[in-house]
Structure formats: structure tokens, C-alpha cells
Specification:
The protein is of the alpha+beta class and about 475 residues long. Helix content is about 70%, strand content about 10%. It has 13 helices and six strands. It has helices spanning about 1-20, 30-45, 45-60, 85-95, 95-110, 110-115, 155-220, 230-265, 285-295, 295-320, 355-405, 410-420, 425-460; strands at about 80-85, 125-130, 140-150, 270, 325-335, 340-345. The protein is elongated, with a radius of gyration of 41 Å. Mean pLDDT is about 80; it is low at about 1-70. This is Transporter. Belongs to the outer membrane factor (OMF) (TC 1.B.17) family. InterPro entries: MdtP/NodT-like, OMP_efflux.
Length: about 475
């Protein structure tokens, strides 16, 4: 009876210690004594001991059953809700899955370095000579074993490694050009989002102002100073403006989703923070062209492809040189039990195949890449000239709009409201003034957007939107 009581107490203590170990770390003395009790418990109650050990392991690891400790990953920090253009471009570099996939292609090209640095494998040969008929002049059975190693003595490995490095540089240039095109798309999407946000703000401000005027019109109608038509007309105008506000909000959501899609971030609705005004003073067209020739990613990639073609021609010319080989081996005779050492040198004779096909192909590819570079230069210069002319035209139109129209908007608005209050104007003239003010403010935003897009095109054409 005492024995059963002792075992019950020990089982209770074991269960209690296992539960405590799930919440806090046990003392070292207690851990040293635990194996003795667990051994005794496993002898009498194997199921209870195994469950206690399972609980102990789960308590120490902190992981729930069925989930290994290393299975939990820290979630990536969410991007900020309001971002600037610089932050959007940084997200493209750091978090875009598309950018990561493009950069992974560089590793594929870098794998050619391994192949370019390899030595040719040696070859092992074995032969035997058996006396079939006639007089035995030596031994009736001869075994021959030899090992042959080709030697790249004319620098084939060096030109292959150089070609592999040029391939990596060309792939890096291609990825950079691809990222520059995506960065241009991000700039355009950011400008569209900022424009839609500003347009929504203008419409909401206009709705507030129109609501204030609506109260004035209803007050005058209640006092008998205006007709019921004025009330109905301004209410219809207010409801129509509310529809415009709803459409503007949908446009903001659409532009926000497009920017998030370009950056590859799911479930994110960014808000653009910045100004539509031009913040950079660009140099003249000749200086822009000098910059484009050195920094435009598409031109850098074209030169890298030309360097690869030149390296391919060097490899083809070097591959036409023969590859000598050295051989060493032994010849074993069976009857006389003799051993003969063999040493030899082999050299292919380039009488017919001197790698003419590969050289012709590499030469044609080099000429094609040279023409492609010339075409890329011509297109780049034409594109830069066009973008620069468009930017100057857009800037001139914006300056004209701001000087001749935007500066007069507050005065026109004040005159229309004063005329209606004093009875010198009707409701139609007042509403026409409100619509004109709203349309001019929206037109100003659209013109600023076109200037911003033209500026982005010039930066892209001149290669000024990429880091050194």
C-alpha cells in the first residue's frame, strides 16, 4: 500500500514539474534530478513518461505540437502608407519580387565562370594483345595501360574566363536597363497617384464651398429674395459634384493599386506624398546627350553585348589552335613477366577543321552588335531630343496657364459670389463661375502632371535617373 502511495506522489510531482517547465525554465539542480525519476516512471508507466517528456520538449522549445521551432518566420515589415517618390524607388530596389527575379538572372550568367575555369578531363585506356596464330616472338599475352591528359598551353582557359566575366557584366547591364524602365513606370504611376489625390482634394474643397453657397441660396429663398428654381438648380449641381468626388476617389484607389502592383506588394494602398512642381533644373541638350552616352542603361547594355561578341571572337580564334596531350603508361607481358614504360605526346593536325565556322559566326555576331549599338545611339539621341522638346513645351504651357489663368481664379470667384449676394448676378452665372474655377484648378493639376511625366522621360533618356 505504501508503495502505491509513493508511486502516486512521484507521478503527481512529475506531471507538475512538466507543466511548470512549459512556462518557465527549470533550475539546474532540478534538471539533474529529473532523469532518475523519469527512468523509474518509464519502467512502471511508459505512456505517462513519454507524454511527460513530450510536454517537457514542447515547453523548452516554445513551439506548439506539430510545428517545428524553425518553421515560424518573422513577417516582413509593412511599407509606410504615405511614401515619397524616393521611398517608392527604394522599395522597387529592395522589396520588388520582379527586381529580385531579374537580379537572379545574374547568378545564372555567373555560373559560366565555373565552366570556363575547368581543365579537360584525362582519359584512361586499356588494351590487350593476344597471340592468335603464328610464332610467339615474345609473350603471347600483353596488357597495355595508359593515361592521357590534354594540355591547354595556348591560353584557351584565359580567354574563356574573360568571356565569362564579360557575360556577367552584360547581364548586369541588361538588368540595370530593365530596372531603369521599371523605375520610369514607377515615376509615372507615382505622378498619376499624386495628381489623382490632388484632384480629389480640389473636388472636395469645391463641394464644401458649393455647400456653403447652397445654404446662402436656401436662406435667400426662405426670405423671398430668390426663386425655388435657384434652390433646385444648386442642389442638382451639388449632387453632380458628389458623383465627381466618388469617381475621383475610385481613381485614387486605382492609381494606388497600380503603384502597389508595380512594386509587387499585395494588400497595400499607398498614398503619394510630394509635389507636382519641378524640383530639378536640367542642363542643356548637349550636356544631356553627353550624359546619355555614358550613363543611359540601354547604351551601356549595348556596349556590354558588343564586348561579349568581341570576347566570343577571341575565344573562337584561340580554339582553332591545337590542344596537345601527353600520355604515360605501362605495358605488361604475361609469360616473360616484364614491364615496359610508355611515354607519348599527341598533337591534332589542323589540316581541315581550323574552327572556321565558329570564327565566321563570331565575326558576324560582332558586326551585328556593332550595328545594334549604332542603332541604339541613333534612337537614344532622337528620343532625348524629342523628350527635351516636349518638356520645354509643357513647361511653357504651364507657365502661361499659371500666369494668365491660375492667378486670376481667386478674384473671379470672389466677384461671382459678391455679384450674387448683391443681386447683380443669377444662380446660373454663379454656378458657371464655380464650374470654371473647378475646371481650371483641375486643368492646372493635369498640366503639372504632364510636365512631371515629361521630366521623367528626359531623366530616363539621359540616364540621370540611375545611380552611378
Amino acid at each position: 500500500m505504501k508503495r502505491f502511495i509513493v508511486w502516486g506522489v512521484l507521478g503527481t510531482l512529475a506531471a507538475g514539474s512538466a507543466g511548470a517547465q512549459q512556462t518557465e525554465a527549470p533550475p539546474r539542480e532540478r534538471l539533474t534530478r529529473e532523469p532518475k525519476r523519469s527512468e523509474a516512471t518509464s519502467a512502471e508507466h511508459p505512456g505517462q513518461a513519454s507524454s511527460g517528456l513530450l510536454l517537457l520538449a514542447q515547453g523548452q522549445s516554445g513551439a506548439p505540437p506539430g510545428h517545428p521551432p524553425g518553421a515560424q518566420r518573422q513577417p516582413e515589415a509593412a511599407p509606410p502608407e504615405r511614401i515619397t517618390l524616393e521611398q517608392a524607388l527604394s522599395l522597387l530596389e529592395a522589396r520588388s519580387p520582379w527586381a529580385a527575379a531579374e537580379r537572379s538572372r545574374i547568378d545564372v550568367a555567373a555560373a559560366d565562370r565555373v565552366e570556363a575555369g575547368l581543365l579537360p578531363n584525362p582519359s584512361f585506356s586499356y588494351g590487350t594483345q593476344l597471340l592468335a596464330a603464328g610464332v610467339n616472338t615474345g609473350s603471347s599475352v600483353v596488357h597495355e595501360l595508359s593515361l592521357e591528359q590534354p594540355l591547354l598551353v595556348f591560353g584557351q582557359r584565359g580567354v574563356r574566363r574573360e568571356l565569362a566575366e564579360r557575360n556577367v557584366s552584360a547581364e548586369q547591364a541588361r538588368v540595370k536597363a530593365s530596372l531603369a524602365e521599371r523605375a520610369l513606370a514607377v515615376r509615372e504611376a507615382f505622378a498619376a497617384l499624386l495628381t489623382n489625390q490632388e484632384e480629389l482634394r480640389v473636388l472636395e474643397e469645391t463641394a464644401v464651398d458649393l455647400g456653403r453657397v447652397e445654404k446662402v441660396v436656401k436662406g435667400r429663398a426662405a426670405a423671398g429674395d430668390s426663386s425655388r428654381y435657384d434652390v433646385e438648380r444648386i442642389e442638382v449641381e451639388s449632387r453632380a459634384l458628389e458623383v465627381e468626388v466618388l469617381n475621383a476617389r475610385a481613381s485614387v484607389a486605382d492609381a494606388s493599386g497600380r503603384l502597389a502592383a508595380l512594386l509587387g506588394i499585395e494588400g497595400w494602398r499607398p498614398r503619394a506624398q510630394g509635389s507636382l512642381r519641378i524640383t530639378e533644373s536640367l542642363p542643356d541638350l548637349p550636356l544631356l546627350w553627353e550624359s546619355a552616352q555614358q550613363r543611359r542603361p540601354s547604351l551601356v547594355a549595348a556596349r556590354a553585348r558588343q564586348a561579349v561578341a568581341r570576347g566570343g571572337l577571341d575565344v573562337a580564334r584561340r580554339e582553332r589552335l591545337p590542344v596537345p596531350s601527353v600520355a604515360a603508361g605501362v605495358m605488361l607481358t604475361r609469360n616473360e613477366k616484364s614491364t615496359i614504360a610508355l611515354v607519348g605526346v599527341g598533337l591534332p593536325l589542323p589540316l581541315f577543321d581550323r574552327n572556321q565556322g565558329a570564327i565566321a559566326r563570331a565575326s558576324a555576331e560582332l558586326r551585328a552588335e556593332a550595328r545594334a549599338l549604332e542603332a541604339e545611339l541613333a534612337e537614344a539621341r532622337a528620343e532625348l531630343t524629342r523628350a527635351h522638346a516636349v518638356l520645354e513645351g509643357r513647361k511653357g504651357a504651364l507657365a502661361r496657364l499659371e500666369h494668365d489663368v491660375v492667378e486670376r481664379l481667386p478674384t473671379v470667384r470672389r466677384m461671382a459670389e459678391d455679384a450674387y449676394r448683391e443681386g447683380r448676378g443669377n444662380i446660373l452665372e454663379l454656378l458657371d463661375a464655380f464650374r470654371s474655377l473647378k475646371d481650371m484648378r483641375v486643368l492646372h493639376l493635369k498640366q503639372q502632371e504632364t510636365v512631371k511625366l515629361a521630366e521623367a522621360s528626359v531623366l530616363f533618356a539621359a540616364g540621370l535617373d540611375t545611380a552611378e
